[in-house]
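Tutorial, part two.
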Amino acid sequence: VQLQASGGGLVQAGGSLRLSCAASGFSLHNYNIGWFRQAPGKEREGISYISSDGQTYNREFVKDRFTISRDNAENMVYLQMNSLKPEDTAVYYCNAMGLMQSYWGQGTLVTVSS
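Running the prediction step on this input gives:
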């Protein structure tokens, strides 16, 4: 059972990245998925959420810039990040939240230069 976030990298302010969260060994379709991030010296914070039936929620500071989506057929969840800002620099993690289990993936680093 594994969850892996990918797609991070170095981007200039105003640019875009799409993060992917891939599951292996289990199916994501019954799980609620959250994207979290942790900036240097700060606590991990939740940013976007998608329920198993597709309802989404974004924190105010990423609203209108980030979009979470899922493709159950591909067993993937995505985070499209537009209009990136230097303060978005962080390690990004995905979390699969089931009724009895919760899985964290290894993070992917996003660095936004000014």
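The chain has a mean pLDDT of 95. In part three we will examine how such features are distributed along the chain.
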